[in-house]
Design goal:
This protein has 633 residues and is of the alpha+beta class. The protein contains 25 helices and 16 strands.
Length: 633
Amino acid sequence: MPTLGSLPTEKPELELTFIATGSQRLHSAKVTGVVTLTPEGLLEDGVPTSLPDGALVLITGTSPFRLRGRITTVLEQLLEQMSRDGSLGLAVSTAAGTRQPFPPATVDQATSLGIGLLATSAPAGRWEVVHEEIQQSRLARAERRTAQLSSLVQELPAQLADPRAMQRIADWLARVLECQVLVSEPERVLATSPDTAAEQLAQAIIRQSVDGVLPQTLSGPHTQLISLAADTVLAVARRTPFGEADLRLLRHAAKLLGLVDQAHREYRAASDASHAARSAAFELLLDGEVDKARRVMANLAPGLLDTETARVFVVETEPARRDLAARRCSASVGQQALVVPDPRNDLRILIVHPIHPNADTGAEISDELTRLVGVLGPPASLGGSGIYSMALLADALHEAITAQKFAALQPDSVALSVHGSDLVGLLPQAEAQHWARRLLHPLMRNETQWESMRETLPAVLAYPYTVAARRLRLHRNTVMRRASRAAELLRMDFASISDRIAVALAMELVTQREVSASPQPTDLESPSLTRLLAIPQVHAWAQTLVRPVQADRRDLLSTALAWLNFDTHIEPAARSLGLSEVTVRSHLRAVEKYVQRDLTTLAGVRDLQFSLHVVTGQLDLHSRQHEVRGAEC
């Protein structure tokens, strides 16, 4: 679209010349159209009540300025109206060579009002063509801007917190304005287009920080800095200057970027609060504080933890990809599970999947996580636990971590306990159920007594009485009384690690694994624990677990066997081996690392005892009292 200053050179056929320039700004002002008037019309109808902003007014026909009187008054009124409406100039048709077609008073008035005076010798028909060209140009520009704004709106995400929204808008701005774009905070780059823009615009950003250049001001040749928030800046630069239309488009984009930035900040704040709450709930679950965890999650996920059992999954991936993997896990499981990055390990993501009564064993969630690990690709891996009571999720987590360690060595990088990756899953289920029910029969004969024991006994076997009482929210004396009664009925000694392991395994099979057991033959011979472990699958599992221990140059095997024979007491084990207690502790830490088991937990000690029994043939799995009671049965 031509400007008032460029019109004489762009359209030489108009033979247009300036008589009075009006003001310097008029030369760069764009002409929006040509309004044609006649002297007769002005004299008869008077001055138009309104004129287009940016218009050039042309008076055609015989020059009226040889006349005096009323025409001078009409011209004064016309200039006043043009000034009010923002018209750029007044042109008059004259004969070629006319030097001054305007009266001096008109020239003075036009100069004071900032309106340009021009003369043309071109016929009116040519001016009609000019007006049509200007309108077509304006229409084309309007359509182009409309298309640009439409494409900008299309870049808006369905949700402002979309992490890719800012980058898409930056790419659009760089493409439409043919410039370099950088959106940044003092500590990081939020979006850049093209990739080299950050390096090119860094100097302008630094200059703003050091010299205090105000936002939305020109900070360098063809560079614009626009503040989006307190510390977020949009920087754009190109080789050619920005026109007014470009700047308007830039400001539109800046507003949208500001909204996206604000949404990101609010989303991060809400996400951080949600993450903190979920992490706190997970820690409470690991401590056995189930009621407190439920209260923490009541508003975030109502009813999620209102179950009695759950499974735990562990996804491990690279640290740089963990946040992305955690978001994908959350999206995959929805509101069916609790997902938190492990605060103690920057490789892991922890998932608690509550199992509702009469539901499946979490196959849908495990299938989703398996698919996700496949999408993530190596080195991502997935481990899963069996079904545990909510009070024993620490044990479930330990089992899931163990399964994940095995998964990392599997072709599909997945090991789920319900599919046989843990020891209990490897046992022949029908025979194991029969053994467990026969062992626990004295506790199960009375239904009221059994309900009390199934709630109390797992914690009593796994933890010291004081800790078990706190987890169960019972008095310590109540816990001790129930433990003594159970030991008496079972004819076992709970001071013996072998007896505690046997009863804990039986409790797990009866209370947590029965759903996967096959129907039990009525004539099935009562198996022993030793026979349950004497199958090829368990033997392979034990060999895998113990092989690194055997390979160590130290005699770690003897230390572990002595420690277990003395019911996990350090002092007598050290005396029997002729070693210092410090050495025994050092050996046990090495064993713990090799077998990837937490030897402070009953489940960890159980796996070590069973694997050593299978590999070495040593370690009794029953106390004498148990053997006697079993023989009597």
